[in-house]
Automatic annotation (TrEMBL):
<feature type="binding site">
    <location>
        <position position="106"/>
    </location>
    <ligand>
        <name>a divalent metal cation 1</name>
    </ligand>
</feature>
<feature type="binding site">
    <location>
        <position position="202"/>
    </location>
    <ligand>
        <name>a divalent metal cation 2</name>
    </ligand>
</feature>
<comment type="similarity">
    <text>Belongs to the peptidase M24A family. Methionine aminopeptidase type 1 subfamily.</text>
</comment>
<dbReference type="GO" id="GO:0070006">
    <property type="term" value="F:metalloaminopeptidase activity"/>
</dbReference>
<feature type="binding site">
    <location>
        <position position="77"/>
    </location>
    <ligand>
        <name>substrate</name>
    </ligand>
</feature>
<feature type="binding site">
    <location>
        <position position="106"/>
    </location>
    <ligand>
        <name>a divalent metal cation 2</name>
    </ligand>
</feature>
<keyword id="KW-0378">Hydrolase</keyword>
<protein>
    <recommendedName>
        <fullName>Methionine aminopeptidase</fullName>
        <ecNumber>3.4.11.18</ecNumber>
    </recommendedName>
</protein>
<dbReference type="InterPro" id="IPR000994">
    <property type="entry name" value="Pept_M24"/>
</dbReference>
<dbReference type="GO" id="GO:0004239">
    <property type="term" value="F:initiator methionyl aminopeptidase activity"/>
</dbReference>
<comment type="function">
    <text>Removes the N-terminal methionine from nascent proteins. The N-terminal methionine is often cleaved when the second residue in the primary sequence is small and uncharged (Met-Ala-, Cys, Gly, Pro, Ser, Thr, or Val). Requires deformylation of the N(alpha)-formylated initiator methionine before it can be hydrolyzed.</text>
</comment>
<dbReference type="Pfam" id="PF00557">
    <property type="entry name" value="Peptidase_M24"/>
</dbReference>
<dbReference type="InterPro" id="IPR036005">
    <property type="entry name" value="Creatinase/aminopeptidase-like"/>
</dbReference>
<feature type="binding site">
    <location>
        <position position="233"/>
    </location>
    <ligand>
        <name>a divalent metal cation 2</name>
    </ligand>
</feature>
<feature type="binding site">
    <location>
        <position position="176"/>
    </location>
    <ligand>
        <name>substrate</name>
    </ligand>
</feature>
<dbReference type="GO" id="GO:0005829">
    <property type="term" value="C:cytosol"/>
</dbReference>
<keyword id="KW-0479">Metal-binding</keyword>
């Protein structure tokens, strides 16, 4: 069932989103070569708790950290590791979730470490833009598949692969709520979008094929062909007019 949030719930999700946007900004500024992916997680958890929030990923289905740190060909759910150091030229996807007074916000960003290749930068930029192309259709009266199709069409226009095995989701008092939000077109139009729905829209885009594999840790998802992957996600609110991006600062 897809829930419609009350004005009170929306206000709490706005605050959760504002905090999460700041968490991402602070993490972005802290990233540098030589930092371990575990350092990123520790710092992220400290920032989240400093805002009085709970890191929603920690222990979620047994996930052992607060921030998913996915480097280069890692698509999502990379597990922070004290022996994995970030180096110049890497691209790193940071996915974080916070709970504020019982309400969730979920967002991801991909950053370059130091100087990165123009190809890597383009993948990051197109992945981010595919989110914005998708939410042009995130309006009451449209159907969910309008968003999914727009994301896919934009990313595939650059020859990139749109990951099929993982999708976005509804969000609210739970991290994952109905509906699923694919980043690729479906045969069905999907649910009718209505004001008060809150969605985590999260394109995962590969430089090569869309195909992915799970590592032996049962979490880390990597591209099957070893190509780079980028991730961009925000929690949004469907309104009577333009969607509100809750996890971005205006
Ligand atoms: N943004 C991801 C998702 O919505 C993050 C989940 S990581 C997990 O599924 F550890 F919490 F599973
Ligand atoms: Co998510």
């Amino acid at each position: 069932m897809v829930s419609i949030k009350s004005e009170r719930e929306i206000e709490l999700m706005r605050e959760a989103g504002r905090i999460l946007a700041r968490v991402h900004e602070e993490l972005e500024h802290a990233l540098k070569p030589g930092m371990s992916t575990l350092d990123v997680d520790r710092l992220g958890e400290k920032i989240i708790r400093g805002y009085g929030c709970i890191p929603s990923f920690k222990n979620y289905n047994g996930y052992p950290a607060s921030i998913c740190v996915s480097v280069n060909d890692e698509v999502v759910h990379g597990i922070p590791n004290k022996h994995h150091y970030l180096k110049e030229g890497d691209i790193v996807s940071l996915d974080a979730g916070v709970i504020y007074k019982g309400y969730h916000s979920d967002a991801a960003r991909t950053h370059g470490i130091g100087q990165i290749s123009p190809e890597a930068q383009k993948l990051i930029d197109v992945t981010r833009q595919s989110f914005f192309e998708g939410i042009k259709f995130a309006k009451a009266g449209n159907h969910l598949n309008d968003i999914s199709s727009a994301i896919q069409a934009y990313a595939e226009g650059f020859g990139y692969g749109v990951v099929r095995d993982l999708v976005g989701h509804g969000i609210g008092s739970h991290l994952h709520e109905d509906p699923e939000v694919p980043n690729f077109s479906q045969k069905r139009r999907g649910i009718l979008l209505r004001p008060g729905m809150t969605l985590a829209i999260e394109p995962m885009i590969n430089e090569g094929s869309w195909d992915v594999v799970w590592m032996d840790d049962d979490w880390t998802v990597v591209t099957r062909d070893g190509s780079l992957s980028a991730h961009y996600e925000n929690t949004i609110l469907i309104t009577e007019g333009e969607p509100e991006i809750l996890s971005l600062l205006k």
